[in-house]
Amino acid sequence: MKHLLLTTILSLSAFFNATAQTEKGCKLLGASIATISNNSSESSTSYSNTPTIYSSKGSSFNISLNPNIGFFVMDNFAIGAGISIGMYKSTSKSSNTSSTTTTTSKYTSPSLGISPFARYYLSKSTTGKPFVEVAIMGNRYGGKSRSETSTGSWSETKTTPKFDRGAAFRLGYEHFLNNSIGLFASIGVQFTSTETDYSYTPSQGTGYTYTQTYKNFYTPINIGFQMHLVKPQKGKKK
Question: Is residue 152 helix, strand or coil?
Fold first, then answer.
């Protein structure tokens, strides 16, 4: 996989001719891995007012890939947009010592978002440059969770987002491997606001719907590669 990625990057950089990384007319093309994790967990809870012990085991996988494209409208200043493609999956199994019934829960949530950005590089170095970046974000995601007990009952919850938007400010540094390819890392502050509708359906009884609003402020870290590309210039006729 690593060899295939490197071959693709080198082939693309050979097709284009990059005379300077951040001059006006240059293009950006790249991707960053915002999140990738594979977690497992186990818990055991006891209370002073009951001898029952509650146990839970679970696992989750989360990945988000952010390709981006941009254009230098002036030296060191680029505008563009990124796309966020994500997938989250989790499974958990719970039980307690007062019952032989166990409950298994599964949740899946794909997501897709777009993030226009503006980036300014703060140096004239050809080996590496710090940069500042601002971005706004809009995301679309869905999801479905299902719980089943060992006795045969079940419940299902479907997720429908009403809106998911945010803004970010980032500080980063890009190291240029050559005129065409750079590796970068950034850290920043990000604010998101979401409103989501949920629809709950049980195997017995009456279902219901509810709405949740959520605001989040956090500091994401991004790493990835960036290509700086200029289309080949056609030779002028004498």
Answer: coil
What pLDDT, in 10s, does the model give residues 17-44? 434 688 898 999 988 766 667 788 899 9
What stretches of 57-164 show up as alpha helix (H) in DSSP?
none
Q: What is the pLDDT of residues 141-199, one digit of tens each?
A: 888 999 999 999 999 999 887 778 999 999 999 999 988 899 999 999 999 898 889 99
Cα distance between residue 54 and residue 58, in whole Å: 14
Longest distance between any two alpha carbons in the chain, whole Å: 94
3-state helix, strand, coil in the chain (%, to 5): 5, 70, 20
Please give the model's pTM, rounded to 2 decimal places.
0.68
Which among 125, 152, 141 has a CA at the least distance from the CA of 195? 141
CB 144 within 8 A of CB 129: no
Hey, what amino acid is at 161?
Answer: P
- The three-class DSSP label of residue 90 is strand
> Which DSSP letter does residue 23 get?
S
Phi/psi at 4 (nearest 5 deg)? -65, -45
Structure tokens at 10: 């080198």
